[in-house]
Amino acid sequence: MLCLPLSFDEESSIGVQLKRSNILRMALAGSDSMEEGKGETFLLKAIKIGGVVVLYWFISITMVFLNNYLLDSKDLDAPLFVTFYQCLVTVGLCYGMHLLSHLCPGVIDFPSVKFDLKVCREVLPLSIVFIGMITFNNLCLKHVGVAFYTVGRSLSTVFNVLLSYVILKQTTSFYAILCCGIILGGFWLGVDQEGVAGSLSWMGVFFGVLASACVSLNAIFTKRVMPAVDGNIWKLSFYNNINACILFLPLILVFGEVGHLVHFSRLGDPTFWGMMTLGGVFGFAIGYVTGLQIKFTSPLTHNVSGTAKACAQTVIAVVYNQSSKSFLWWTSNLMVLGGSSAYTWVKGMEMKKVHIPQEESKEKLLGEKSDAGV
């Protein structure tokens, strides 16, 4: 799946986009790690978990900086083409994995991804939202850079709450709304501090807000189209990116990016295409390592790891760019990350409260059946 740089909010909303069981299928679907883990020593388990977390951090952070490098090029102003090419790479990788799964069935487990026009049409509404999400996401990164990216793209959770109420009529608890208030406060403080520092890009902030809204819409539409792809995330990725490739072509023409490509001096440079392809590969890989991290730890631990990763990513960007940030600027980042983490914890506790009574009622029903001799 093309997974362009994600803010922590977006990563923490994975549970909204897909059921956790579907995310777990993104990892090694054929392995029985839970059963195998029973005979493992604590040290071996710790090494495995540590390795998975390090892999997730490496791929996620590298992907953000790589995409920033590609989008921030002064020689090529063609963000739509960059995104189109990464979608194309994702389609190619999905088909390649499909072929390898047939050649090595015992080693690689990947679903069949044969092209079906009917499925493409059913996935199309999601693909339109998906295009908006990845395009605005890239444009936000292009204009604000990596350091402010976490704050610039921090409103996904807020839009999740808002759109869930407007579209799905789902209400949210007071504590969850309070967490959203902290995120909003951090966002506005961050915007204010960027303005004080003279580095604020209102265009970048605008694209960040649009990207956050599209992330939430993408979550809602994903739920609706999953049955069309048999609930399989890789099939969804395949058809979603095929549609995106087709829909990007007229957009590239309309926004005049063809002219930029024609006059681009490095169009025949293998290094440039290598970096472009690597960006697509990392986008594909992030979907796998996200599922792998959840599989070896837990959804909550994944979100904690995502928070820490976002902090590290921001610090690396500030150090790399040799920037000097104010105390309030760092406070805005902490508010965004803290509010997002608190929201995840609150929703997790609410889900437990709903889950436990259901389990108790099931046990009670089974007990009644047993007493009745059923």
UniProtKB/TrEMBL annotation:
Keyword Membrane among record annotations: yes
Location of the protein in the cell: Membrane
Domain Sugar phosphate transporter, chain residue ranges per copy: 48-319
Membrane topology category: Multi-pass membrane protein
Keywords: Membrane, Transmembrane, Transmembrane helix
GO cellular component, one term: membrane
Domain of life, source organism: Eukaryota
Keyword rRNA processing: no
Segments traversing the membrane: 42-66, 78-103, 148-168, 174-191, 203-221, 241-259, 271-290
Function field: Putative transporter.
UniProt similarity note: Belongs to the TPT transporter family. SLC35E subfamily.
Protein name: Solute carrier family 35 member C1
Organism, as annotated: Oncorhynchus kisutch
